[in-house]
Amino acid sequence: MNTPHFVDDITIQGTYFAVIIRSPIAHGRLKAVQCPDMPNSCTLITAADIPGVNQLADFPVPVLADDTLSYIGEPVGILTGFDMRKLEDYSAQCKVVCEELSPVFSSGEIPPSHILAERRVSLDCAAEREEAAQTISGVYKTGIQEHWYADPHGAVAIPAQDQLVCDNHPEEKNLLNKMLIHTATLWPFHVKRSVCQILGIPAAAIVVEPSLIGLHLDGKIWYPSLVACHAALAAHLIRRPVKLVLTREEDFRYSPKRNASVISITSNIGVKQKTLETNVTVRADMGAQGVFTDEILDYTCLGSMGAYSWPRLALEGRAFSTNLPPQGPLSGFGLAQGFFAIERHVSRIADSLHQDPAEWRKNHALQGQLGIGAPHNAGIASPIAELIDSAAAMCDYYRKWASYELLRQKRHGEAWQVRDESPRGIGIAVAYQGNGFLHQWNKDAAYAIELTLNKNSLEICTGLVFSNTSRASCVERWQSIAAEILSINEKHISVSVGNTDTAPDSGPASCSQSVVTITGLVEEACNELQERRTNPAESLPLHTRRVYQPVLRSAWGEDSGKQFDERALSNLSWAAAVVEVSIDQVSYLPKIRGVWLGVEAGRIFSAEQACLSLKTTTIHALGWAAHEELSYKLGKIPDSYMFGYDIPSIAELPPIYIDFMKRDDSHGKGIGELPFNCVPAAYVQAVSQAMDHPFEKIPLTPLDLWNVEKARLP
Asked: By residue range, what is the domain housing residue 98?
């Protein structure tokens, strides 16, 4: 496979372009799509023109709205033509005729018909009940977050039998009997299955070649399939190559964001300062159509239980649909939202008891099972205490916390006055990361690789797709494992990825599948080949195919009816984060003085790549916590948010220090989600100590800080 390009860089002879006609209302009935007078070279395609099933594979997402309109911006038609400027003019003149109905947004009452999934769990490990001396309650809110891709979503589709050749890929002349699709996707086989489904053609008639991904943050798992279906449908019907690239504004307004959550937690504290019982209520807004609902809700519920042992805990989780664009994952499927809530809550418990939040966490670290019913780390005790001490030692946490706490208590209750010093605070949080999907997207879901061994060479073939930053590290990891087992020079070990015509389906490249599942399959396959090559009855070349089929077990109790893949939670990664801030007394902008991470992630194949990954996601986690304010107003993102969306700049990057805990563990684990799961809560705790106010939301803006200070004015 040649080096991929961004979709917008791919040029094809005789290309037609496509633009999407979108719903102007949040909820209603579609009556018609009316177009202005157009030349014969322009074509309007609607749901009535779809030859197959009008739905993406595995998810209840229509490719084009047929009757019901579910959100502002939902695709209702595709306009094609060879002149992009005229096409944009015609699309602006198109009129979507519809009957508007009352929409449902998360700010109002959610009807029962909009409940997509519910979870309930009750844990009771206490020997006896005690009377509560105080109650700690909080409502912890996390906002949506934009992925801000290097390039907007797009796709290029070349129909079967087309004699035109892509300028960047002349070898594609060998694929004349198949439709060829280029799109930036983490799940090329989902693109393939979705296109086959809407066109009603066999899988052998479609080839998907992933284009350059860039930094994706899990945002290009399923939505590229929708864009690819639009391009493929147009190419199939007009018998021309079609290029569809969303504008930056379209992508910002309508592509999935990290879903918002509201998590309420109440804990009763006994007279002996012990937590007696805790009640958790999780609310997750999935937007329209509910993609990955079970995955996100379960991980959010798990995160909101934290990494602690609770004497008694009752949890109720609910995911619901609204008339917003579909929401989804961003560097993980909900754990970050859950961990933010519980980590803020335990810090508030520690504050109320006048205890060091780090010591409280060490004294209540999880032992035994996670609340979903899965053993964590195969029964190994969680390394929370060691990781906290590791992060604390790097930054002198214990001394700083005690000093800042004395200053906070000194300021507490004082009349408001202009201060010469900048208040400081320091916060700590811990979290874990799962390594795999909890649920299957379809009954046949599996992960596969193929290996071919020749005399002095080995070829590894996988359907996984990598970003330009992660591919090298994964390839090096697999080459190192294969070279050690098979005694082959790493230079003679090749890795083929992504092409759906030659590679096996390896599932979506998310949830650390490349590090955990696929790496495990590579090791198993190499051991098999090593055994077979010593067998006189075997002759080279040797070929093997290894498949991992999820092993399911009951979740949230035997009667829940839900199952999950036990491997996803059997070998967790862990991290403790410390964040130190000072508050500018003029701008009320917190300055991050440093971030320290203690990490336990099994075998680290490349410390340099691991540090780069952790630092990159730490920056994005801080952006979510402190900068990236974004919300919908009546189903639409206001222009002020779009043009003023604030992602961290290079000048704002704080020093980040990382310490890896070494364990006798030959298996690698994922690390990419860990900063999102613990850094935001540590940041908000640091700001809360500095401002002497228990903040409960992210993003936490300077205006939020000023409003607290303003309320103290005499």
From this structure: 7-102+152-254
